[in-house]
Amino acid sequence: MKTHPPRTSSTAFSSLANPDYKILWWAGLFSFMSVQMQFLLRGVLAWNLTSREGALGLVYLVMGVGILVCTPLGGVASDRYPKRLVLLWSQGLLTVGALSMGIVVLSGREQFWMLLVASGIQGVGFGFFGPSRVAFTADLVGRSQLGNAISLSLLSMNGTRIFAPSLAGALIGIRFVGLGGAYLVSASMATVSFLYLLRLPPGGTVTTRERKNPFVEILDGVRYVRAIPKLKRLVLTSFFVIMFAFNYVAFIPALVEGIFGLSESWVGLMSSASAIGAVAVSIPLAARADSGLARPVMIIAGLGFGFSVLTLGVSPGFWVAFAVVAITGAASTVFQTLSNTLALGISDDAHQGRVQSLIQLSFAGFGIAAFPLGGLAELIGLQPTIVAMGAAALATMALYHLFEQREARRSVAQVPKTSG
Questions:
Q1: d(CA 247, CA 110)
Q2: I want to staple 161 with a disulfide (CB 3.0 to 4.6 A). Which of 125, 173, 275, 282 is the partner?
Q3: Mean pLDDT of 201-226
Q4: Which ranges of 81-211 would DSSP assign to H, the alpha helix?
């Protein structure tokens, strides 16, 4: 295992002084650019083919099932095999999915079932890519700079959310490019990410423990989390908050086109609003993510995330919704950064990949919940459904805070009193 240099700076970009992490960061930047373009392209294509909120939800359901099945396996793989190898295979799969959709759309043979297959492929790729990338980050920078590195990783992801949806929307509007060409541009971004990953070291593996059946190792990771109450509460809270609140992104095309009556190009602008808010908080957050205030700030951010989604559901027009989505992006970024940092800080080295895989199962929940939420939107309306999503996230964060407070009071009561 490579040794980590001592931390010499607490600046927002200190982790990028590590040359291997810098390569991983650039690989993530291009991968996220590709993925964020596909989020918009997938939503627009699904809406164009069906004009139904339920179809948008079904696309995300298929992706969510892929993430649900493969994320635990991705956690095992990142603990068992060289992390670069896992990243290369998963990034290759993401590249193939984008390239295939570009070819079928350009040929004029696109069908809704093809979109579902592509979503499933992306879910599988995500399932392996996410846990390995975060666990690799811990290997490269060490625990002292883990919060800073995760913040910078989310900065790259959220930065692409500013440009990628707008780029995808602009490309759709160019006659000789269109949806198919935009998918090919996305595939080229994924290819650049793959080439960057080739430059990384293999990545450490935990070789001191006996290798078991992967499903036994998944269960071992679950038992490990269950045995640590603070970690269990953190994983469950992250799962339910992301599952409910983050689903607002799945319904942006329906909100912009179906409720506000605007064209496809406005969908990209609305998606960029979330990223603007996220980037605005990422740099100051990166400089402070390893401080002792991480837990209370995470709670405040989670409550703000839920409340802003609820507010989105009652927004009367596009520009009010735009401002609300920017706030939502900021709150969700702080929540995700600090929940990841806290979870990995609690975990030992042998379980980091599997713990991270359980944290990232929240995105499987987000995809799976999109389908019934889409059906609910068709039944009671899109905006009331968004209100319910925000309320569910608020309730989850309130319960987490109450349980943390109860645990803190119990710990204080158990401390033996000393006589004066």
A1: 25
A2: 275
A3: 69
A4: 83-106, 112-141, 146-173, 178-197
Phi and psi at residue 52, to the nearest 5°: -130, 135
**Is residue 171 packed enough to be buried (19+ CB in 10 Å), middle (13-18) or exposed (0-12)?**
buried
Residue 233 has pLDDT above 70, yes or no: yes
pLDDT digits (tens, 9 = 90+) for 93-133: 999 988 998 898 888 888 888 888 888 888 888 888 887 88
Q: Which of 307, 7, 346, 14 is closest to 151 using CA atoms?
A: 14
Helices (H), 313-381: 318-346, 352-380
What does the radius of gyration of the chain's CA atoms come to, in whole angstroms? 21
Asked whether 356 and 79 are in contact (CB, 8 A), the reply is no
Which CATH number is 15-202+218-411's, of 3.40.50.720, 3.40.50.300, 1.10.1740.10, 1.20.1250.20? Answer: 1.20.1250.20
Overall size of the chain counted in residues: 420
* Mean residue pLDDT across the chain: 81
Q: CB of 339 within 8 A of CB of 301? A: no
